[in-house]
Design goal:
Helix 4 packs across helix 11 and helix 5 crosses helix 7. The protein contains eleven helices and twelve strands. Helices cover 40% and strands 20% of the residues. It binds zinc ion.
Amino acid sequence: MRYKEKNRLPLALGDGLPLASSGVLASGLSLASGLEVKENEDLLVFINDSSKAMEDLQDVLDKKFTPKRVNLGSLSDTYFDLGYIKRALLVADCGSFLEFHVFDYAWKLKAANFCKDRLCPMCNWRRSLKIFSQVSQVMNYLEPKGYQYLFLTLTLRNEPAERFPDMIQSLFDGWRELYHENKVFKKVVEGTLRFLEVTINHKTHTFHAHLHVVLAVYPDYFHKEYISQSQWTEMWASASNLDYTPIVHIERFKAKPGSSGLGSAVAEAVKYAMKDSDYLVDSDTWRPVYVETLLRGLSGRRLFGKTGCFGKAWRDLKLGDPEAGELTEDDQLREDIDYMIVRYGWRNGVYVRI
Ligand SMILES: [Zn+2]
């Protein structure tokens, strides 16, 4: 039997029934206390057939979570071959348990066994979603206060694997010098969001590391205090002590035509630090080299940093640490909104309800 619309149980505020604190049934379904549910199976059928949130969740599970889970095998096997047994085991199990809270038209990932390994495709994807959400909030928060944004890309030339850790050190040293010592920079820049990105050239097997930086400036920058691209290039070459001319890009942040607000512009800035397709290559010779090189060069490094007005906004908005924090949704649920708890386990290559 299917539940008719009038028998529908409240899953979110606004369904017209009084909601009390949630009680979790053995089926994993969370219902308002005081409601009697005699036919759990039918109720689940009703939700599976009708809930848009569940349909959307299933879609995301199939199209986003599943491909990342499948990719973990390659990284785990490579760690085993390199002798990093603990890492291999943690990565192999990453995201094999997922717990969602499902509302009427929305869902949230509330618990999972993520490994937080630096090269984990699943964790890097979750981290990038989190950073995107936090950066969007911060930029939207600051924009009405009169800040405008620039997007700066700072690069060094490609280096072979053995030079990669030194290259990362040079990049971070150069950034610190530019940020702390350059008088022009200090005068015009009110805050920064810094993202490290690493790419690999598969023909020359060299590594390319660069920093994407969002700069907050006051409108005066575009009149009295404007810095040209060649000045930015000189400033970066000098801060990094380079004997060649580096590639430096600077542009004003603008939302793309037809898009709403800063969303698409932020997405351009907040890229994955590393794409897993870049290092989980189909070569038993090069995959271990790429994985080990990235691991050595990036361990202990902050891939993301914030300063000035961005750091303050982060505190004002009470946002967590996107790198060290949990990779689930950490915002507080309202106590008066009811939801279902839905759990999935990874079994034989697919996610199944548990
Ligand atoms: Zn992971």
